[in-house]
């Protein structure tokens, strides 16, 4: 995953219908609160997830995590996975946007 800046989004984050296409990319940001003594362990576990990357951390036990997933269901699956890690206290979804592959938000080759 390459680092990029995300545009602000004022409309609904997901479509009204339940169907998602493989052309969608769900960009999400999480704040994960961790017991400070488990920070390194949890950071390594999150970075081992294929669609997650730790983008920032605080020594008091906060991690900023960015997800890039094909659908909303995968976002919630990853949140559940992170919440099950030892030392994790809470996980908050702070940003979620659906983009079409090939839009300006995507990386260019």
Automatic annotation (TrEMBL):
Keywords of the record: Chaperone, Cytoplasm
Major location (coarse): cytoplasm
Keyword Chaperone: yes
GO-annotated molecular function: signal sequence binding
Subcellular location: Cytoplasm
InterPro entries the record matches: Chaperone_NapD_NO3_reduct
Superkingdom of this protein's organism: Bacteria
Name listed for the protein in its UniProt record: Chaperone NapD
UniProt source species: Photobacterium halotolerans
Originating gene: napD
């Amino acid at each position: 995953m390459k680092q990029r800046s995300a545009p602000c989004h004022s409309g609904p984050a997901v479509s009204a219908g339940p169907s998602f296409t493989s052309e969608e990319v769900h960009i999400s940001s999480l704040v994960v609160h961790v017991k400070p003594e488990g920070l390194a362990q949890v950071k390594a576990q999150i970075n081992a997830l294929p669609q997650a990357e730790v983008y920032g951390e605080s020594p008091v036990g906060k991690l900023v995590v960015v997800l890039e997933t094909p659908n909303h269901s995968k976002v919630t699956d990853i949140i559940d996975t992170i919440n099950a890690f030892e030392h994790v206290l809470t996980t908050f979804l702070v940003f979620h946007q659906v983009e079409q592959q090939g839009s300006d938000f995507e990386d260019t080759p």
